[in-house]
Design brief:
heterodimer; A: alpha/beta; Rossmann fold; six-stranded mixed sheet; four-stranded antiparallel sheet; 10 strands; 37% helix; 22% strand; globular; B: alpha/beta; seven-stranded mixed sheet; three-stranded antiparallel sheet; 8 helices; 30% helix
């Protein structure tokens, strides 16, 4: 284990940093700024523009799990899509400093991911990011076998040996508690919880620097939910992987996240260490969220 | 044929047979209503411009304004438009289908071109300056002064894995070919080897993934670093693409499942005895009603040429009695 893995997260350099990240759907007008906000709503009454994410700031350190919580329509999934570079941002910066730096810092200049062209974005997404969606059909191709789905990122990383690809896929299936002998089965033959684990195996296949989890336990029954959460915790413990988790369920965030962002109407209303947020919420909206589950 | 008759033919979209090869050349410079090779000049200019773009971006699918022809879409309209936009009165053209000069599709296309251009036609690959083909590349090596035009039924190799044209165009733009590689992986897993017979996907110049049209795997290596310009026309899909001379063309393959052609060293052509050509199997019916399968060269003109040469050689070797 490296020296950095022993160090507290707070002393590590940031890996991903967002500055005033904004995504709007609509033309925007001079009245938007005055008539939208966490308390005013995310839709401008003059031009109808919807601000899905407004001036979001956060930083993510290597090995950290950052939770994003909020009610439906608060901009959580848009934020994760912005980080996944599948949705173009309208404003702001998204700085990335890589994952291979040591605690002493690295000499690589941070890169604003929003300035990359579509080809470079695709390359970055394929090699640095992994994502797990709430709905497996978004993350998996149902026509291909489970092994084929897991192999996709390996093939994109120029793996060209079927034997080695299958070996790696089997290892990942074992890691995610899936029976490796079912490597050639099609996804529709798997249960909901197993499909989430297939997605996790696929996301981990290329050793991503950052794993994005979008409502991974929503829609699963409690026992399956607990197993998926255990698996994510175990993977984080073993692989020390940096994660960004979106959930509307504070229970999930409580179990997994080191720090938490609370979003409302596209704005971040509160952020801090997860236990601080849960024990001593400052914003009325956070207080409402916490009181509704505890 | 008189010049007034030829003019009449052009006005009526060319319906009658034409045998005077010099007539087209004589008329083209004088008659403003005359369009050499059936297509109007604006359409030809459109096709030529798009072909230039295709040559500049090897393997890239270039949309073009495909026009109607007096043959149905899907019967070689793409290849025919490319050929018609390229040929000049001094050209010698060869048209083949499945390697055969006398198949129905080849004969029909040849007739149309013959009636509307008066060009010289040949079945000898070495004599032709422009060869239009469907499903085969001729066996004889092509030269730098020749152009091979391929008719394409399905231009986009990603169609197998992505039905949306918009998304597949984006996948090409971002070189996002992971899903196609998974398709190849699945092919190996399900059948034990690559089970793609024709339309084998290739990477052109290490950038664009390209469909090789329904040529057999046997012909795929001929595209790599070839001397000849290969032009592909898909009339129904309104796309042209190209492999310029000396371009790297690599079939998709795995280290443990390398690309293989269909060549079978135990099979020989029943007519010319060739073992180094692409063979097709034919069922030969005997006089007693029985029959058997026999292999023949797919490239009929090459086979016939070899056969003739063998006959001449044998005739020379027959001792004088």
């Amino acid at each position: 284990m490296s020296e950095m893995e022993h160090s507290p997260i707070t002393s590590r350099p940031w890996m991903l940093e967002a500055h005033r990240l904004t995504k709007r759907y609509g033309p925007g007008c001079p009245h938007c700024a005055a008539h939208t906000g966490p308390e005013k709503g995310n839709r401008c009454p003059f031009c109808g523009t919807v601000y899905a994410c407004s001036q979001v700031d956060f930083s993510l350190k290597k090995g950290e799990i950052l939770g994003i919580v909020g009610e439906s329509g608060s901009g959580k999934s848009t934020l994760i899509q912005l980080v996944h570079l599948t949705v173009p941002a309208d404003d702001g910066q998204l700085w990335y400093r890589g994952s291979d730096e040591s605690e002493q810092g690295n000499d690589r200049a941070p890169l604003d991911l929003l300035t990359l062209d579509t080809y470079a974005r695709r390359q970055f997404r394929n090699h640095q990011l992994g994502i797990v969606y709430q709905r497996p059909e978004l993350g998996l191709n149902m026509r291909f076998s489970v092994g084929g789905n897991i192999a996709e990122k390996l093939l994109l990383a120029d793996w060209r040996h079927v034997g080695r690809i299958r070996q790696r896929a089997s290892t990942l299936m074992s890691l995610t508690e899936l029976p490796p002998e079912r490597i050639d089965d099609a996804p529709p033959l798997f249960s909901g919880g197993m499909l989430q684990r297939v997605q996790i195996a696929k996301a981990l296949s290329n050793n991503p620097a950052l794993l994005l989890l979008d409502e991974v336990t929503t829609g699963l029954d409690l026992s399956v939910q607990a197993r998926v959460l255990d698996l994510i915790r175990q993977i984080q413990w073993e692989l020390k992987i940096t994660m960004l988790i979106v959930s509307h369920d504070l229970g999930v965030i409580k179990q997994l996240a080191n720090r938490t962002l609370v979003m409302k109407n596209g704005w971040v209303v509160e952020q801090g260490l997860t236990d601080q947020i849960l024990e001593d919420p400052q914003h009325p909206y956070t207080q409402l969220l916490v009181s509704s589950i505890l | 044929m008189t010049s007034s008759r030829f003019e009449e033919l052009m006005m009526q979209s060319a319906t009658a047979s034409q045998e005077n090869h010099g007539a087209a050349e004589e008329r083209s410079d004088h008659d403003p209503l005359y369009n050499f090779a059936f297509i109007d000049e604006d359409s030809k200019r459109e096709i030529r411009r798009k072909l230039l773009k295709a040559v500049a971006l090897p393997g890239h699918l270039v949309p073009f304004a495909s026009r109607d022809l007096p043959i149905a879409r899907g019967w070689g309209t793409g290849g025919l438009q490319v050929t018609m936009a390229l040929v000049e009165p001094r050209d010698t053209v060869k048209i083949i289908d499945q390697g055969d000069d006398e198949s129905v599709n080849a004969v029909n296309l040849r007739r149309l071109l013959q009636q509307t251009t008066g060009l010289r036609f040949t079945t000898d690959t070495t004599e032709a300056t422009c060869i239009q083909t469907r499903h085969r590349v001729p066996e004889e090596p092509l030269r730098a002064d020749q152009i091979l035009v391929l008719q394409v039924p399905m231009a986009d190799p990603l169609r197998w894995v992505e039905p949306s044209l918009e998304r597949s165009a984006q996948m090409h733009a971002e070189a996002d070919y992971g899903r196609m590689w998974v398709y190849m992986y699945e092919s190996v897993v399900r059948s034990g080897d690559m089970n793609i017979g024709a339309q084998y996907p290739v990477m052109v110049d290490n950038r664009y993934m390209m469909d090789t049209t329904p040529v057999p795997r046997y012909d795929v290596p001929r595209f790599h670093m070839a001397e000849t310009l290969y032009l592909f026309g898909a009339g129904r899909e309104k796309r042209v693409y190209a492999i310029p001379p000396y371009t790297r063309v690599a079939p998709l393959e795995f280290e443990d499942y390398p690309f293989k052609t269909e060549h079978d060293s135990t099979q020989f052509c029943a007519k010319c005895g060739a073992n180094d050509t692409f063979l097709t199997r034919h069922f030969i019916v005997s006089t007693n009603g029985q029959g058997h399968w026999t292999a023949f060269c797919s490239d009929t003109s090459y086979c016939h040429k070899r056969y003739e040469a063998q006959m001449q050689q044998e005739a020379k070797e027959v001792p004088f009695v």
